Amino acid sequence: MDHKILQTTRELIDEAGYPALTVDRVAARAGVGKAAIYRRYASKAEMAFAALVHGQRLPPPADTGSLHGDLLELTRTFHARMAAPAARHVAPALMSELAANPELDSRFQDTFLAAEHAGLAEIVERAVARGELAGPVDPTIVHLLLLGSLAAGLYIINLPVDDAMITDLVTATATGITALAGRHHGEPGGEPHGDPHGAARPGPPSPDRA
């Protein structure tokens, strides 16, 4: 049923645009009750976000072997969805709803944003295990620097974000959190353990992650 609801949402947005989308139309075409939709999504905008950008759960982030590579892979995946024309209509509508509805905002924080945060936390943990980071950094900072900046570029500043800009954004984020980890965990000057573009330099042995 989840797949059917989201697929129908995408179809209706493609056919008539986001403004014409309604929960009633999704329910009728998908052959489900409105109550089934509202058990999953508190609003039309939340449902559309799940259909166009990502759901309330995300698959584990790709393990490329480096912090920079992991962040780049994740950011490219998000950009491909967030930059789509339909997503550009949905995101401002959702932000407006979140600003006006504290209960919806709390729900969004606990589902969609929590899923993004968890993926970034896993990437940070891997980088610490490889010796690329001197110690843990708050994934909230990574979230703000990377996906927050991407969202601002696409939806607020309306930048033509391309792959070169994504790569620069990831490089700046990886370099910044590497320095931050060094500062927080006692490395003089916050010197990085590894090349932010590639493999880590020799560092402490990685713990067993089996």
From TrEMBL:
Residues 181-210 are annotated as: Disordered. Keywords: DNA-binding, Transcription, Transcription regulation. Residues 184-198 have a biased composition (Basic and acidic residues). PROSITE patterns: HTH_TETR_2. Pfam families: TetR_C_11, TetR_N. Residues 22-41 bind DNA. Residues 1-59 form the HTH tetR-type domain. The keyword DNA-binding applies. This is TetR/AcrR family transcriptional regulator.
